[in-house]
Amino acid sequence: MLERITTVRPGEGTTLHLTYSDGATVHADVSRLLSEDPGRSARLADRAVFEQVKPGPRGRSVTWPGDVDLDVQVFRHEPPAFPVLARTPPPTDNPISRALRAAVQASGFSQSEVARRAGMQQPNLARLLDPAYHGHSLNSLRQLAAALGLEVEIQLKRPAPEAPRGR
């Protein structure tokens, strides 16, 4: 489920690039939504105004100057109330991050203590434990494993076969 809009950028014409708090993105043409209200459509026909788009309060809307906004719910409709030009799902949880988080929790140490033992800043450790993070280096894994009294083991294996899809 798409949570809240964290960033919104104007694209060509009346397109918007939206990023949600869960990492999902949508690139959509909102001309149909804007045309539903002639006053709103007229105000946003000015490109300088359209480019001032930003996320609304708590990421629950897309807003422009002059009290022009679109509620986040219009972006969640299925089928969409506008043409979606591209969509990317939220990133999948990284099993490396999950394993690191479990190891840190099992250690009984605080994140700050584990980071100190690993010779890194606590925010860097938090990034390694973030399930959406996919940039782990072998060096950082070795540092963290040593701080926890563990070893790094890398395994390459064949992926599980995909289950047949029903018709």
Automatic annotation (TrEMBL):
CDD domains for this protein: HTH_XRE
Residue stretches spanning the membrane: none
Cross-referenced Pfam families: DUF2442, HTH_37
Residue ranges occupied by any HTH cro/C1-type domain in the UniProt entry: 100-155
Name of the protein in its database record: XRE family transcriptional regulator
